Amino acid sequence: MELWQAIILGIVQGLTEFLPISSSGHLIIFPWLFGWENGGLAFDASLHLGTLAAVLVYFQREIRGMLAAIPHALSQPVGLLKGQGGDTERDHNARLGLLIVIATIPGAIAGVLFESQIDAFFHTEENSTRAIATIATMLIVVGIVMAIAERVGRKCQVIGCMKWLDALAIGLGQALALIPGTSRSGATITAGLFRNLKRADAARFSFLAGMPLVAGAGLKSLADAIGEGMTGSEVANFIAGGLAAAIVGFLTIRWLLRYLQSQSTMVFVVYRILFGLFLFSMLFIG
């Protein structure tokens, strides 16, 4: 992979990891459309760690608060989840941390059980046509479900009022997002809308809840890449792709949270459906 291709894919990752349009789907589709070679494990790790860095920097205040509240969360987890704690900032931070743990569990279980099979299906040449068709299908289907969530969700709840069932529903969305084309942010924001979260709060919790899984995926890929050894060009692509993903990811988070304060997700619904139909047309014409 050329350095400029690594930068472009880093930009794509930074945009699509947080916009509800599927980062994994786009990172499979771009090389397929343009005939680029696979970046390998090291590059995959750089993209995950780049977007993780964007989240850590943007939400640093919330993260510091949750880390400081770990002892408090461990002292009375059930009571905090039931809303029986106090109304202090420490209580809110501890409760948020517990909700993130709950939202992480379904995706972690699904990853352990199915990640290797999903990777084998979507990253082998003989499955390329079926893989692209699956991505196109998920783009369209989740887009339609997101549109339904926009209509039926009351969009009246904030993160501070979330219950453990809300976090579990969002966690199930994260598990489904292992399938490329689904979009982790798309599935989790949609689940949040169905649970009546405000759009910006659904997105904010989505980004925070994704940290453990993104970190796990990035560190696993990095460990595998180090075990296999990295060439000089792979190191350069690692740095360039990761930096591009981090910078663009940070800007995307800031823009999207502001956008969703007053606008709906319908622009992403339209994009998903049109892009899915485009992929089907590309498969049809060969």
Defining traits:
single chain, 286 residues, mainly alpha, 79% helix
Q: What average pLDDT do the residues reach?
A: 93
What's the helix count? 14
Number of domains: 1
Distance separating the two termini? 24 Å
Helical content, roughly?
A: over 70%
Which class of secondary structure composition applies to the elements?
Answer: mainly alpha
Q: Point out poorly predicted stretches.
A: none
User: Given the C-alpha coordinates, what overall shape results?
Assistant: globular
Task: Give a brief description.
By secondary structure, the chain is mostly helical. The chain is built from 14 helices and no strands. Helix 3 (40-58) runs parallel beside helix 13 (232-259) and helix 11 packs antiparallel against helix 13.
Question: Could you please describe the fold and organization of this structure?
Answer:
By secondary structure, this protein is mostly helical. The chain has one domain. The chain contains 14 helices and no strands. The protein has helices at residues 3-16, 23-34, 40-58, 60-68, 70-75, 77-81, 89-122, 128-152, 164-176, 184-194, 199-209, 211-228, 232-259, 266-285. Helix 1 (3-16) packs antiparallel against helix 2 (23-34), helix 4 (60-68) crosses helix 7 (89-122) and helix 8 packs parallel to helix 10. The longest helix is centred in the middle third of the chain and has 34 residues, at 89-122. It is globular and about 60 Å long. The two termini are 24 Å apart.
Question: Helix and strand layout, with pairings?
Answer:
Layout: H1 3-16, H2 23-34, H3 40-58, H4 60-68, H5 70-75, H6 77-81, H7 89-122, H8 128-152, H9 164-176, H10 184-194, H11 199-209, H12 211-228, H13 232-259, H14 266-285
Helix pairs in contact: 1-2, 1-3, 1-13, 3-12, 3-13, 4-7, 7-9, 8-10, 8-14, 9-10, 10-11, 11-13
